[in-house]
Amino acid sequence: QGAPEWQSLGSGLNGPVHTLLVHKGVLYAGGAFTASGSATGLNGIAAWNGSTWSALEGGVSNADSSAVIVRALAAFEDEIFVAGRFNQIAFGHGLISVGQIARVTWNHAERFWRWSPLGYGASYPIGQWDEFLPPWATTILIRSFASATLSSAATVPSSVAATPAVVCVAWRGA
What we know:
By secondary structure, the protein is mainly beta.
């Protein structure tokens, strides 16, 4: 048997990967990419099924067409929580506004991913998950790399909001 070696996953992705998540035997990548070979429309998030990368029903986007960056992924049951720099998600045949964070749920009956907002979200891109507690605890703690405020979702003291790398907020809800 030869020495272990790195192997590419398909054609790779056409931009940097910032976060990885393995959930229910599937590898998910989040980052600043849009395609892998002939698979287009990945929009910052993609699933690797063992042979190809695929989109999660339109993924995330920005209204001003600026670059999308997915920086955090977490999962529970059939839901994947996605955070980063984006302000729209695919919804039906259109787009709806979100605040840098959303969830995508696998619909077993109809065999597709359905995106939904996670409360009002944040007004500034989310840097990473500090801690993710599963939804039965109904809490996600987030630390951003830059100052952040929450859009009507909570109050962040100005002393904290103005200090990079210390913003910590919790989502409590369904």
